[in-house]
Amino acid sequence: MFDRFKAFLTALIAGFVLCADATADVRLKDIVNVEGVRGNDLVGYGLIVGLDGTGDGVRNSPYTEEALSSLLERLGVNVQGEDFRPRNVAAVVVTATLPPFARTGSQIDVTVSAIGDASNLLGGTLIMTPLHAADGNVYAVAQGPVLASGFSAEGAGAEVTFGAPTSGSIPQGARIEKEIKFDFASMESLRLALRSPDFTTATRIESAINGAFGQQIATVLDPGTIEVDMASAPMKPVHLLGRIENLRVSPEQKARIVIDQKSGTVVLGADVKISRFAVTQGNLTITVRETPVVSQPNPFSRNGETIVLPDTTISVDQQTERRIGMVEENVSLSDLIEGLNALGVGPRELIDILKSVKAAGALHAELVLM
């Protein structure tokens, strides 16, 4: 019986289950963030011109008309009292990320998204747009031709849209005008923040750093934070961090099973363990069919009325074939993967079985449902 059940998880490798191995050594820069070294979000409101009749309907988007009038006034064109309704202008929200240590004059990518009823931004050009940070100050100015991320086409009786033609990007479309001051070289200590906090991983990082420099410069503060004393380090802060981020450690991960119920994908961690349990699976199909009957009165009847009579048919189909299997104590992931395939269990059934095993207390792993 166990031989049949041992194939129950080979289906995972066959297509609907992946196995995660958390034993590989990785660089510190791939699992930690340096506190204070981060990007800053920028946002702005601008206009895109040059569209082929696919811009905002000014009557439906009055803010586009106001912004266009203000732009023309600043350029010396008086449009007060004029009745103009261009269809080649669209109002957009412009977003970007100011990277850490970015300097004045550097260029960054921006994304534009229509906020009116424009149908397509293809071929448009963004007019000079200031980009503000959360503090309200302007840190960059964006301008340039837009690369739309989709297209749309329509005829007299059909329409097709691919992607999102109402949004796009401008590579290197913003120029940094103001820097965010951050004196990294004068810092006496810095903190490394683990992206997935874990006690074991934090202590391994502490040991790796202290072992690499031959002195106690790293201290674990909590499962997600390691503090590095740069004042007592044998080199400058920039060189120190450049060496630290390339040290390799083996991160520890929790035993975890991630289930994507939409696609039927199951990802199992390498440390997943299962205690002794038995499983049985059968198919029970109940079909309820409604066939209402309409009863009408005789022709030319004065007092008769049409009524609907219910007619319900219920059938029960219980298949005799059942899948039964037993798992011994402390079965490893490799044994489990060899198991569930022989029973012919599909991805949906597999997900239901794993949920039931977890509810029974025999699955020693965290179950994450997406």
TrEMBL record:
Name this polypeptide is given: Flagellar P-ring protein
**GO molecular function annotations of the record:** structural molecule activity
Q: Where in the cell is it found?
A: Bacterial flagellum basal body
Predominant location: other
The processes (GO biological process) annotated in the record are: bacterial-type flagellum-dependent cell motility
* Function of the molecule: Assembles around the rod to form the L-ring and probably protects the motor/basal body from shearing forces during rotation.
Give the CC-aspect GO terms. Answer: bacterial-type flagellum basal body, distal rod, P ring; outer membrane-bounded periplasmic space
Quaternary context = The basal body constitutes a major portion of the flagellar organelle and consists of four rings (L,P,S, and M) mounted on a central rod.
Keywords of the record, alphabetical order, are: Bacterial flagellum, Cell projection, Cilium, Flagellum, Periplasm, Signal
Q: Which family does it belong to?
A: Belongs to the FlgI family.
